[in-house]
Write a structure and sequence with these properties.
The protein has twelve helices and 21 strands. The protein has 440 residues and is an alpha+beta fold. It has two domains: 323 residues, 2-Layer Sandwich (BirA Bifunctional Protein, domain 2), CATH 3.30.930; 92 residues, Rossmann fold. Bound molecules: 5'-O-(N-(L-cysteinyl)-sulfamoyl)adenosine.
């Protein structure tokens, strides 16, 4: 891809309407464009990052045995009346009437719809557990949409649902998601802590928010710093192993605002490990038993008896993660972003110095591009005639983690290669490919 032909509308200055760094950067480098309050279009750079995040989320759901489906965005009000949430959800729900005057809504979440799908198809406990997910747009008419795509009205979410025969099996399902979330965020180079949380309008009494630390986050968090050391490395998909993982986390105090108790915090956490800060909720998992299955009559036959299935739901804010990663990785002061390679819009930026008379550097850039491509690396060439330092400044903002700079000094077979935030070095193209691929 040539930068001159790409749709990356970079602004010269920071947009004044943005208050936090992710919103600022996303508007500045043209990742998103607001279409109305809390509703955004995703431009190529932003969309590429979101798609890579989605891919990781999908792979990690598949890996723990969750099956992918796709439910619609528009739902009928009938099922919400059955669960009793149609009234409860209040003004956050966008309500629509179709031409037959039927009450419809734009789904803010899908507990009812999935329960309806389940009850019509699964009749025996022998088909359990059922773990299902989809990745779909949601709409919540937030009172105060803010911070760009971090708290918006239309957003992209992975939501999963589990169906089990009893509490013990349901906890096993819950723990599978717990593990898959740790793995998901780790692959994005994020340190997300699972925190005991409130359940809000989803319901139930067991819930964890996965929170990444950021000063601009909306959730207040209270934790024991030692929780950062807990690793899921040797955990396997078995009950014992997953229980062990949960117990390792349980040892350390980690709660959000609603669950905070000063006395408990002081008692349980030695002073030197106490951490009070803010964070961004990137995932939220819930166990709520028969909250939906009972009123909606979703049951299976178990030894001649009718049992209401035990359910949980599990969300990841796929679009929010784009902003959350920026909050975690962007150096606002020096205007330097570095995307983790797993979600970077491109693997490498090729930045040749070009002037009207001399196109030799562009030719070199083209050759490098082809070589990277043949090694499965996705690059972008800045083929504009801007001066080199302006180009580099732009790419420092865009945050593609590696740069190959072709200036006047480029000699022979060695190229100036730079990982953002590190010293540049002169090395051969084969070595560059090796370095990038090792990180991928
Ligand atoms: N049904 C459950 C689990 S699937 C549910 O809806 N959970 S949730 O309300 O916690 O949302 C899941 C995730 O979506 C949150 O952790 C958050 O990362 C993201 N999210 C929620 N509201 C918004 C919003 N207004 N803007 C952007 N992302 C959001």
């Amino acid at each position: 891809m040539y930068f001159s032909k790409s749709f990356i509308p970079i602004l010269k200055n920071n947009p004044t309407e943005a208050k936090i760094k992710s919103h600022k950067l996303m508007l500045r480098v043209g990742m998103i464009k607001q279409s109305s309050a809390g509703i955004y279009s995703w431009l190529p750079l932003g969309f590429k990052v979101m798609k890579k995040i989605e891919k990781i989320v999908r792979e990690e759901q598949d890996r723990v045995g969750v099956q992918e489906i796709l439910m619609p965005t528009i739902q009928s009000s009938e099922i919400w009346k059955e669960s009793g949430r149609y009234e409860d959800y209040g003004e956050e729900m966008l309500r629509i009437k179709d031409r037959q005057k039927r009450e419809m809504l734009y789904g803010p979440t899908n507990e009812e719809l999935i329960t309806d799908i389940f009850r019509n198809s699964i009749k025996s406990y022998k088909s359990l557990p059922q773990l299902l997910y989809h990745i779909q747009w949601k709409f919540r008419d937030e009172l105060r949409p803010r911070f760009g795509i971090m708290r918006c009205r239309e957003f992209y979410m992975k939501d999963a649902y589990s169906f089990d025969i009893n509490d013990d099996e349901a906890l096993f399902s819950y723990n599978k998601f717990f593990l898959s979330y740790l793995r998901t965020f780790e692959r994005m180079n994020l340190s997300a802590i699972p925190m005991a949380a409130d359940t809000g309008p989803i319901g139930g009494n067991l819930s964890h928010e996965f929170v990444i630390l950021a000063e601009t986050g909306e959730s207040k968090i209270y934790t024991d710093k030692r929780i950062f050391e807990v690793s899921s490395k040797d955990t396997v998909l078995q009950k014992d192993s997953l229980n062990l993982l949960r117990n390792k986390f349980k040892k350390y105090y980690a709660v959000t605002d609603e669950k905070f108790d000063q006395k408990e915090f002081d008692n349980k956490v030695p002073q030197e490990f106490r951490l009070k800060t803010k964070g961004i909720e990137v995932g939220h998992i819930f166990y709520f038993g028969d909250k939906y299955s009972k009123p909606m009559n979703a049951s299976v036959d178990f030894q001649g008896k009718k049992e209401f299935v035990k359910m949980g739901s599990y969300g990841v804010g796929v679009s929010r993660l784009v902003g959350a990663i920026i909050e975690a990785k962007y150096d606002d002061k020096n205007e330097i972003m570095k995307w983790p390679i797993s979600v970077a819009p491109y693997d490498c930026a090729i930045i040749p110095m070009i002037n009207k008379k001399d196109k030799l550097n562009l030719e070199k850039a083209n050759n490098i591009f082809s070589y990277l491509k043949s090694n499965n690396l996705d690059a972008i060439i800045d083929d504009t005639e801007e001066n080199l330092s302006t180009k580099i400044k732009n790419f420092n903002l865009i945050g593609i983690p590696y740069q190959i700079i072709i200036g006047n000094k480029t000699e022979g077979e060695n190229y100036e290669f730079k990982e953002i935030g590190e010293e540049s070095k002169r090395i051969k193209i084969e070595k560059i490919v090796e370095i990038i691929n090792k990180k991928k």
